[in-house]
Amino acid sequence: MKKRTILALFLVAASSTMLAQTHDGGISATMLQQIEQSQSKNPAYKALANAIASNKIDDLAKNYKNLGEVDTYFSVETPKQNIEDQKSSGRCWMFSGLNVLRANFAKAHGDSVRVEFSHSYLFFYDQLEKANLMLQGVIDCARKPMDDTHVQFFFRNPIGDGGTFCGVADLSEKYGLVPMSVMPETFSSDNTSQMQKMVSSKLREFGLELRRMVADGKKAADIKKRKTEMLGTIYHILTLTLGEPVKEFSYTFRDKNGKAVGPAKTYTPKSFYQATVGGPLNGTFIMVMNNPRRPYHKTYEVEYDRHTYDGHNWKYLNLPMDEIESLAIASLKDGHKMYSSYDVGKQLDRKRGYLDTDNFDYGSLLGTTFGMNKAQRIETFDSGSTHAMTLTAVDLNAEGKPLKWKVENSWGPTYGQNGYLIMTDNWFQNYMFRLVVNKRYVPETLLKQFEQKPTMVTPEDPLFLEDE
Fold it and tell me: Mind telling me the catalytic residues?
């Protein structure tokens, strides 16, 4: 190639690079200079930069004036029960839901009888049902292109740990429950990531095969048969990682001291469910949420957000926080714990197990402000429901207004306040999102609103991440 041609190509390339670097909207040399000149020249800035570079931000931002002893008194508190540990899994929704069921059992029978349910058992069927939901969803949408929103939803999220109380209701009614001692945790139930990577990869492979079958015009019966074979493979993986689900077992109920309170009896998971929970859960509760981006007193339903294909989508009534608090207080006063969920990582003092909007002053440390309200945080994906816990107590002032709340967590008995977290009402107002409450504590007007035709929303909405 001639030198003149090479030089010309070089000049064109250099010119293109310069244009790309100075294109309107990019950081130009002038803009960079302005940014650099805006930085503080105060000598203390260098000391602050050194401190931040060498330490955890939370340690430096901790509000000294808020480090006093945590007030552990609660005017309304439900009986305590054993704290459990979800370990390295995203099953908080299941732990919180089963905490509510065993608390209801204890309230009905007093301290004379205790029960703890197997999370591994219900998780087995949760994973099997989610696999079926994915495969059937792929079949339902098989004639849509791969870049369709629904198709991408199934392939992007073939299976996962997360969920809501709706899953506890659907799964336990369908498959029953068993005691923890009958089907204990396994390594993979406590540590789910590797198992789910394998299952997800297999489901994606199966999904492509099912799409090809539909495209090739295969009969519906043949597609269903092949899907059943695929689920047999998933079932096999689950038995190897979580254990074979128990079908029948002998069990003796015991009191809080471990003493047997009657003879051993033979149960199936369904009969044990009847003995401990009783009738159906679906239809006995409503889910309410505080989502200030949407109109209040309207019902919303999240499409495809369910644990079983034949189960219930997550449906909720959107309410202001003061009305949600009134429902919670009514339930707690009657001795009933509730499933609830939060953005638990915000302003969490992990050592003290204390949640308060004044725990950390990040703005002063970093020389700025963080001024978004709850609606703006949700809208920009800065905040949303991330973790389910069991609401157990509230402290009320003389006028009956809440001062602080307490939740039973699932991070083990040594975390926070002996397994519990305490939150101020201001934090509760800002970072609490969902509550599942028995209908007996819900005013008739709200029950009627819950039954109105829901607005369908997609799982991609910023507030509809599952609890983990």
Answer: 92, 387, 409
